Amino acid sequence: MGRPGDSVKRGGSPGQLVARSPFEVEVNLKAKLALLPGDGIGVEVVREAVRVLDAVAAQFGHTFEYAERLIGGSSIDAYGTALTDETLADCRASDGVLLGAVGGPKWDDPQARVRPEQGILALRKGLQVFANLRPVRAHPALADASPLRPEKLVGVDLIVVRELTGGLYFGQPKKREFVNGRERAVDTLEYWDFEVQRILELAFRLAQDRRRKVTSVDKANILESSRLWRQMAMRLAAEHENLQLEHMLVDTAAMRLVANPAGFDVIVTENMFGDILTDEAAVLAGSMGLLPSASLGDGGPGLYEPIHGSAPDIAGRGIANPLGTILSAALLLRYSLRLTTEAAAIEQAVDRAIQAGCRTADLGGALTTAQMTDEVLARLRG
User: Fold this and answer.
1) Vertex 291, ends 17 and 54: CA angle to 5°?
2) C-alpha to C-alpha distances, 86 to 20, 83, 208, nearest whole angstrom
3) Which residues pair with 136 in a beta bridge?
4) 1-129+293-382: what fold?
5) Which residues belong to CATH 3.40.718.10 in the chain?
6) Is the whole model's pTM more than 0.70, yes or no?
7) Would you list the DSSP string of 318-357?
8) What 8-state DSSP symbol labels residue 221?
9) What is the pLDDT along the chain (382 residues), one digit of tens a residue?
């Protein structure tokens, strides 16, 4: 199946998002979505997100066709690799990719040649998604679920823009070797100017529609790559005089996320720093199970996934929180299909369910995964 019809407003880079007019009615949009449930609770939460997508399709007159494929440990078991060429091709041919989670004790041997996480890295590279967007909003009804004092959470509404395809995770050389009887490991932190520029430009564009404040996180007092990063941020800031830019060392940013999280609007940073900071930021919302993410590039399908892992300790028990995946599906509608009304409908239904006291075990409640989805669906249709 090709791309959705011409009635879908596309175009521009990530952050240059084209919303539909409220007077337009988008009907009978046909889209092909790739599903990669992966391992552990990924299978359970993706199933629930599909239930919500199906409800949206029925309610708004769309058709979503799904192609479910393996990734991570399940793909290793079936094919000996964490991501097959055929699966990547199917993802590239889709209009959006919804991912669950990968990994688990079964594949957790550090000496293993093939690891589940290689599937995600290969997928990001293959889809050419260079920007990971992770919105974090503290819901007032969940203030008691966070380890921070409730007053620290007032007004917390931020988005972390993480560079996704450079840095230590992809730099070369990357190796282990024996030298003079000693074992040595090498990882390379490498960034090109164009990689830094495009992620910074995206952060600045996103800030235009928010509170117009960008925090660029680096380690410029130590790292040469961070000095390049900071210089380019300063150069771009001169072209956006209506925005406020602040520079912050990563260790300071980690402290501020706990001490004054409401002071952040848009945080932009490199790959490893972003990986760490976004997991820290998850506690602001009360649970990692609540948070979605979107990985975007200059073209092609985006990649959408909750930020939690495969949680093997609760896999198969039917108690995982599906909201992060459901909200990731909403981001898919917003960024890849430009269905902003439908995305907002899902997000509002989730908010209303939380406000009504609906809780899974991670939030101190007793609802099962499917029951939590039922509560969202009831408010979506209502």
Assistant:
1) 70
2) 34, 8, 39
3) 158
4) Isopropylmalate Dehydrogenase (3.40.718)
5) 1-129+293-382, 147-285
6) yes
7) S----HHHHHHHHHHHHHTS--HHHHHHHHHHHHHHHHTT
8) T
9) 333 333 333 333 444 433 333 334 456 799 999 999 999 999 999 999 999 999 999 999 999 999 999 999 999 999 999 999 999 999 999 999 999 999 999 999 888 999 999 999 999 999 999 999 999 999 999 988 888 899 999 999 999 999 999 999 999 999 999 999 999 999 999 999 999 999 999 999 999 999 999 999 999 999 999 999 999 999 999 999 999 999 999 999 999 999 999 999 999 999 999 999 998 998 898 888 999 999 999 878 999 999 999 999 999 999 999 999 999 999 999 999 999 999 999 999 999 999 999 999 999 999 999 999 999 999 998 7
Task: In whole angstroms, give the CA distance from residue 36 to residue 94.
Answer: 12
Question: Can you tell me the distance from the alpha carbon of 199 to that of 287, in angstroms, rounded to the nearest whole number?
Answer: 27
Q: What residues have CB less than 8 Å from 180, skipping those under 6 apart?
A: none
Q: Which of 293, 296, 335, 294 is nearest to 17 (CA)?
A: 335
Identity at 30, one-letter amino acid code:
K
3-state SS string for 286-298: CCHHHCCCEEEEC
**Greatest extent of the chain over all pairs of C-alpha atoms, in Å:** 72
Dihedral (Cα; 48, 49, 55, 60), 10-degree rounding:
180
**Token pair of 22, please?**
């409220």
The DSSP-derived string for 132-154 is: EEEEEE--GGGGGGSSS-GGGGT
Residue numbers annotated as active site: 169, 219, 251, 275, 279
Question: Rounded to a whole number, what is the distance in angstroms from the first to the last CA of the chain?
Answer: 32
What architecture does CATH give domain 147-285?
Answer: 3-Layer(aba) Sandwich (3.40)
What Å distances lie between residue 336 and 39, 43, 110, 228, 347, CA to CA? 24, 22, 36, 31, 16
For the chain, where are the E strands, in sequence order? 30-38, 63-68, 96-101, 129-137, 157-163, 175-179, 182-186, 213-218, 244-249, 266-269, 294-297, 303-304
Q: Which two tokens stand for residue 271?
A: 């790959």
